[in-house]
Each structure stands twice: as C-alpha cells, then as structure tokens.
Design a protein that fits this description.
CATH architecture: Alpha-Beta Complex
CATH topology: Aspartate Aminotransferase, domain 1
Strand content: 35-45%
CATH class: Alpha Beta
Distance between the termini: 23 Å
Order of helices and strands: HEEEEHEEH
Number of domains: 1
Structural class: alpha+beta
C-alpha cells in the first residue's frame, strides 16, 4: 500500500499523545496499532480507519468516507476517508471513532 509522507506526518502528530499507540510499517506504508490491534493507516490521498462492523454505517455516512476495498471485496469494519475531509477536528473525530472500537478489542 503506497503511502503519503505528509499524511503520515499528520497522523503521527494527531496520535503522539495517545497511550498504547505504536507505529508499524506494513504493506509498504504505515499503520498505527492500539494495544497491538490495527487502528488506522495512510495511503496516497486518504486515511484508513478500523471502525468495526457496528460503527460502519455511521462511518460511511460521514463526508469523504467509503468502504475499504483492496482486493475487489469490501473489508468489513474498515473505511477509507479522503484526506481533504480529515483535517483538524475531523481527523480527531475519525481517530476517536476508530479508537472506540479498537480499544474494546483484547490486547495482542
């Protein structure tokens, strides 16, 4: 998954104070893990958030969001969000939504 270094820097800054978050190089790009579980990532022009199946409809109703699909099959509980729709407080809101789901998962 190719990544955008500017978006990675934005995500690093947004996550720097959050406990339990670790950056990990994956799929040729970067993902961030919360307690060992995937939380979010970056690609060229967009962010990826793991929101879980129960929050997926809410996530998809937000500006710039669409279902994550890499292999031709949608990945349940994961969404892409256009970088232009994820600035400042909007990025924080996406992180909060994903963290709500991921924090409830058993630590790895």
């Amino acid at each position: 998954m190719p990544f955008d270094p500017d978006l990675a820097a934005r995500m690093r800054e947004a996550l720097q104070q959050r406990a339990g978050v670790v950056e990990k190089k994956m799929f040729g790009g970067y993902c961030w893990m919360l307690n060992g579980n995937m939380l979010c990532g970056v690609e060229v022009g967009r962010f990826m958030f793991r929101v879980g199946a129960l929050q997926e409809a809410d996530a998809l109703s937000r500006p710039g969001a669409r279902r994550m699909d890499i292999t031709g099959r949608p990945m349940k509980g994961f969404v892409w969000v256009d970088a232009n729709e994820s600035v400042g407080a909007a990025l924080e809101a996406w992180i909060e939504l994903a963290a709500r789901y991921v924090a409830a998962l058993p630590p790895k």
